[in-house]
From TrEMBL:
Residues 18-218 form the Glutamine amidotransferase type-2 domain. The keyword Amino-acid biosynthesis applies. Its cofactor is [3Fe-4S] cluster; FMN. Its EC number is 1.4.7.1. This is glutamate synthase (ferredoxin). It holds the Pfam family GATase_2. One of its GO terms (biological process) is glutamate biosynthetic process. Pathway: Amino-acid biosynthesis; L-glutamate biosynthesis via GLT pathway; L-glutamate from 2-oxoglutarate and L-glutamine (ferredoxin route): step 1/1; Energy metabolism; nitrogen metabolism; Nitrogen metabolism. It comes from Sorghum bicolor. One of its GO terms (molecular function) is 3 iron, 4 sulfur cluster binding. Keywords: 3Fe-4S, Amino-acid biosynthesis, Flavoprotein, FMN, Glutamate biosynthesis, Glutamine amidotransferase, Iron, Iron-sulfur, Metal-binding, Oxidoreductase. Belongs to the glutamate synthase family.
Length: 218
């Protein structure tokens, strides 16, 4: 069918909104090169983290990677706890309040919800970050980023992931209610991911990825 010349739509007006890419290691092995390729791809998508008037501020973008068990096994020892074998635990990535009392209250509420679903909190780990390249508006809303490690229940792997989804949704509602976020309070709590298989690493183009220890570690 031919396009009518009097139509408002014109294909020349098309623009892309978001960039999404996939990098995979066909052997199934964990390789640093795969993460490097993903970071390079992300750097080429500056528009994905919508830019503000400040050169170093944007909505943010990131990469999703398989849980690096060997890496977590080492860093959790420094945090004072040990991990079970892969697949027997999950990791949550959370944006937390900068106020310590609100942060501890949020953790306590998350623990209550997790334990009600049959999980045990193994421990919490502050995620190393570097905010030296952030502009003023980003610094004003910068959260504390932490990871929570929880045990698997007696369910199968597939059911474990389903339960983690339920836990994530319920805990967001419960914690926000406990922190009075729904009643005009600050929106300073969010669980970005919770899974026994993958984790999210948030970056803004080239600005944060090279300075995040978790992303750059071999």
């Amino acid at each position: 069918m031919q396009r009518r010349e009097d139509q408002i739509y014109n294909p020349s007006f098309e623009r892309d909104a978001c960039g999404v890419g996939f990098v995979a290691e066909l052997s199934g092995d964990y390789k640093r090169a795969t993460v490097n390729d993903a970071i390079e791809m992300l750097e080429r998508m500056a528009h994905r983290g919508a830019c503000s008037c400040e050169k170093n501020t944007g909505d943010g973008a990131g990469i999703m990677v398989a849980l690096p068990h060997d890496f977590f096994k080492e860093v959790t020892k420094d945090a004072g706890f040990e991990l079970p074998p892969p697949g027997e635990y999950a990791v949550g990535m959370l944006f937390m309040p900068t106020d310590e009392k609100r942060r501890e209250k949020g953790k306590a509420e998350f623990k209550k919800v997790a334990e009600s679903l049959g999980h045990v909190i193994l421990g919490w780990r502050p995620v190393p970050t570097d905010n030296s390249d952030l502009d003023e508006s980003a610094l004003e809303t910068e959260p504390v980023i932490e990871q929570v490690f929880i045990t698997k229940s007696s369910r199968s792997e597939a059911e474990f992931e389903q339960q983690l989804y339920i836990l994530r949704r319920l805990s967001i509602i419960s914690v926000r209610a406990a922190l009075n976020i729904k009643c005009g309070g600050e929106r300073d709590f969010y669980m970005c991911s919770l899974s026994s298989r993958v984790q999210l690493q948030f970056c803004y183009g080239r600005l944060l990825c090279p300075t995040r220890q978790d992303v750059t570690s071999d």
